[in-house]
# Entry
Amino acid sequence: MPKVRADISMSLDGFVAGPNASLEDPLGVGGMQLHEWALRLEAWRSAHGLPGGEVDVDSDLITESTGSTGAVVMGRHMFSGGSGPWEDDPNRDGWWGDEPPFHAPVFVLTHHPRERREMQGGTSFTFVTDGVESAVRQAKAEAGEQDVLVAGGGAVVQQALAAGLLDEIQVHVAPVLLGSGVRLFEDATPAGLEITRVIAGPQATHIRYRIKR
Amino acid sequence: MPKVRADISMSLDGFVAGPNASLEDPLGVGGMQLHEWALRLEAWRSAHGLPGGEVDVDSDLITESTGSTGAVVMGRHMFSGGSGPWEDDPNRDGWWGDEPPFHAPVFVLTHHPRERREMQGGTSFTFVTDGVESAVRQAKAEAGEQDVLVAGGGAVVQQALAAGLLDEIQVHVAPVLLGSGVRLFEDATPAGLEITRVIAGPQATHIRYRIKR
# Structure
């Protein structure tokens, strides 16, 4: 049974991006520290066309996610990837290059209508202007027997959670305090979760939860 | 080398107490869920004079903490334990009973001077009116070769962290979203942490960090 999963890195004090996050700097001040556990890994580097990298307990998380994801939902900050405002320029495709690392259909939440773009390596970008429920519905339709990954940022995960769309959330708790920024959970609807797996990596603690309905 | 340790339960969305926390209800709405991992354990129950309870991977955490703690620092909410305003009544000792479960000197942060009270079973209560640094200093002096435990609530842990007094923090991440309440980390000073241990319990993920200076 395919699931709708969120998968996101968070500081111990609850932030998914540091202060002053923007289209130019989606992770904000210090936010890159949240992703250090992944950036050093061979699994992450090869997906991004980079050589080398480490293999350890964290690697399986990346290959597992890649292998089970049939479609991706993300917000406009994540799509921009630091390339700045992109929505008014029909020739911009974000920073992800000709062969983005997703290798699956990606549904980007935005207020700006835009043509679907087919990229190399199986990635496509579809721009969804009518909200997260629509994005997840469209993603499910293309994911087939695989999962829909709600990849971030925090606002998109929050919206999906609030709309009751998530079956599962995996949080990579990074050993850092950012002090301020974009919170993963801001006024979340109170809910019980069930811990379904914990992986203790050297640079993050990966906790997977089933969301109780 | 004795340490100054904080040890506290937190919801996945970062709260150590739910909304409307008060001297009458220090855990706030839903806050008891943060402690369910401990309340069911034999180690916790026996420390509180109760029979029965379970023994599992979480139990060791309690016996470990009890065995290594030479003195405790806590705030006035935690001291009140739900018994309501106590500071103007010289005959009130909080709800902890004649033999409190701490079995060590306890330093209570308050703005109200009060005589030290010796309780049964090795617990004493000393009321500290000149701030967290003073409380930790006094606690260290009585802890000898054992650790000082900064037990909570969130404000006291925050103050100790901000003052650079903590060597270590262990967070018990409970599988629950509270939505609002008292945050463990509010405007924390940005800092790097080192994961020193993870214990995956069924009802909480226990992550211990060394605080990098």
Observations:
- The first strand of chain A starts at residue 4 and ends at 11.
